[in-house]
Write a structure and sequence with these properties.
With 318 residues, the chain is of the alpha/beta class. The protein has 3 domains: 80 residues, Arc Repressor Mutant, subunit A (Orthogonal Bundle), CATH 1.10.10; 96 residues, Periplasmic binding protein-like II (D-Maltodextrin-Binding Protein, domain 2, 3-Layer(aba) Sandwich); 118 residues, D-Maltodextrin-Binding Protein, domain 2. It has 11 helices and 12 strands. The strands form 2 sheets. Strands 3, 4, 5, 6, 7, 8, 9, 10, 11 and 12 form a 10-stranded mixed β-sheet that branches. Helix 5 packs across helix 10. It is globular and about 65 Å long. About 3% of the residues have low confidence.
Amino acid sequence: MNVDEIEAFLCVAELGNFSKASLKLHRTQPAISRRIRLLEQSLQAVLFERTARAAKLTAAGRAFLPHAQAVRAALRDGARAVRDADQRAQRVPAVTLAIVGTLADSNIVAALRKFEASVPRASVRLATGTSREVSELVRSGEVELGLRYFADLDPLLACEQLGTERLYVVVPAKHKVRARRLRDLRSLAAESWLSFPKDPGQTVSYGHLLERELLACTITAPKITAVDSLTAQKRLVEAGLGIALMPLSSCREELKAGSLRAIDVSNLRAELPVVIVRRRDGYVSPASEAFLQLLRRHHGLDAKPLQRARRVAKRKAR
């Protein structure tokens, strides 16, 4: 077996289709099929169940998948290590980072600016996605570091909690509950709630939080609609079609504009742990290690943002 065969296998496994894999790899479909056939001959096993429109991993394919992913990630690690070892090339130090999109509006941005100011020649290659997608980018070796919500249970990944983002009840501007602070969630028991879908691969996730908090307030059978887009959730809340739990970093612009309001619930202890994720024993460049150290020193993800948002909204109302 060779690297091209492993790359073809991974691409077909990820896309579930030979034609899509051929387009992504810029190869003809017969060439991709031939690579998979050669790999199957080497392993003496059928890796895909093929239909006219799809390719699904067999039991053998599922068994081979994590090892193929490890090979690809190790090769990417090796390429980075060689680049960093080549002092004569005087290459620009690079940080490869994947981040959950909502964190792009938190104090982590300040950490990125501080890093770039302290290492002027450094470059940061940034990718965004859901927590699951961030983990996948790290697992595949596409990036060295990831920032996501909640620890990933994959034993191939090492997770370290960086901080937390507190969650607030977010309602439309003209919601009937006008209080800025509530003792608990019981006055919102009859509301329709919006939440992220539960992550089936994790025992805790953003999608689990709302149900847990409502049950803690003895609110049984709550009306919860799963919406997998943060932007869609905000637009639905603005339209009066539900309320949601959100970190203030996710809706700062809407709070400033006055289209949404945040309610501080005294006994609500819902927080999103912000976690650094990296591959166990994976290569981390000196630049990424320096950025990681800076992140560890950079505290205060939720430094009184609600009070600041309210002051801005009050000034605009005048």
